[in-house]
């Protein structure tokens, strides 16, 4: 039996597992709710609540990944995760968000569902291979091999950024000011020569179908987006998955979430989420 207090004690961990596996805030919340409905019906004593709950959420997430595979294959343009948006320095929310970046979630998307589950449980939440093998009903040796393969894959592709938090915020704010002011030269000064920008519209709103490469191309693309007529546009400085970003609202509703990655004092990557389905969880 798992009571409400025990479940709430582990809710943040459960959401973290589901979000990292699914890349979707809404789906992660649904999985956590489904886990509670299942666990609340268990009448026998549960010896290890954390492990039992993690097992339940992991398997529910794996089921969702299987059903979502075909949808992801038909996705229009670059796929980006649903953003975790918080106010800067918003306590525990930022602490949760800082442990996973948009870039890392994209890397996790390239793993198989099993590899993703093992990586998240082992590398992020510290479960042992023995515990994970029990959760997934597989042999420990096989799980250990999957974990090593997943870790090597992530380490080879995981982006590394050296800018401290205050530099990231300063560069992001300066770049935003240049964008809003239409200062194309200043925008290009703040962009690394080999910068890449991804924009996710999901085929539902205007966005680039392919990644934009190079400072000049990225600057002109962003300037063109911001030059479009908008009804009462408001730009808000927020944290996006624990790093400085922005939220653009139009007529009081979320329109765009963007986050820049900074290396040195220049922006090396920009991820822009415009698909309205991925912004529904944000408050106006």
Write up this protein.
By secondary structure, this protein is an alpha+beta fold. It is 51% helix and 17% strand. The chain contains twelve helices and seven strands. The chain has a seven-stranded mixed beta sheet. A hairpin with a 2-residue loop joins strand 6 and strand 7. Mean pLDDT is 88; it is low at 90-98.
Which terms summarize this structure?
284 residues; 12 helices; 51% helix; 7-stranded mixed beta sheet; 7 strands; alpha+beta; single chain
**Structural class from helices and strands?**
alpha+beta
Distance from first to last alpha carbon:
39 Å
Strand content: 15-25%
Listing every helix as H and every strand as E from the N terminus to the C terminus, the arrangement reads HHHHEHHHHHHHEEHEEEE
State the strand order across the main sheet. 1-4-5-6-7-2-3
**Strand elements, count:** 7
**Radius of gyration using CA atoms only:** 20 Å
Helix amount: 40-55%
- Weakly predicted, low-confidence segments: 90-98
Helix run count: 12
* Major β-sheet profile: 7 strands, mixed
Q: Shape, please?
A: elongated
The residue-averaged pLDDT reads 88
């Amino acid at each position: 039996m798992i009571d409400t207090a025990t479940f709430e004690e582990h809710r943040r961990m459960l959401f973290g597992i589901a979000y990292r596996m699914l890349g979707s805030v809404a789906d992660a919340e649904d999985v956590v709710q489904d886990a509670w409905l299942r666990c609340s019906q268990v009448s026998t004593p549960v010896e290890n609540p954390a492990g039992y709950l993690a097992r339940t959420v992991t398997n529910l997430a794996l089921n969702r990944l299987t059903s979502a595979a075909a949808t992801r294959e038909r996705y229009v343009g670059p796929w980006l995760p649903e953003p975790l948006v918080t106010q800067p320095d918003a306590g525990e929310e930022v602490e949760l968000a800082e442990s996973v970046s948009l870039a890392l979630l994209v890397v996790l998307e390239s793993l198989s569902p099993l590899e993703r589950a093992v990586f998240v449980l082992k590398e992020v939440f510290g479960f042992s291979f023995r515990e994970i093998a029990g959760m997934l009903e597989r042999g420990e040796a096989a799980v250990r091999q999957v974990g090593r393969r997943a870790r090597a894959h992530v380490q080879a592709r995981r982006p590394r950024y050296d800018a401290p938090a205050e530099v990231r915020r300063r560069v992001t704010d300066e770049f935003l000011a240049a964008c809003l002011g239409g200062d194309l030269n200043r925008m290009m000064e703040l962009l690394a020569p080999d910068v890449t920008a991804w924009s996710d519209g999901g085929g539902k709103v205007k966005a680039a179908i392919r990644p934009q490469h190079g400072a000049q191309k990225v600057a002109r693309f962003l300037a063109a987006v911001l030059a479009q007529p908008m009804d009462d546009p408001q730009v808000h400085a927020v944290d996006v998955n624990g790093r400085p970003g922005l939220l653009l609202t139009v007529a009081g509703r979320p329109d765009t979430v963007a986050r820049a990655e900074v290396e040195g004092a220049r922006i090396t990557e920009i991820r822009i989420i415009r698909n309205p389905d991925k912004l529904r969880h944000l408050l106006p």
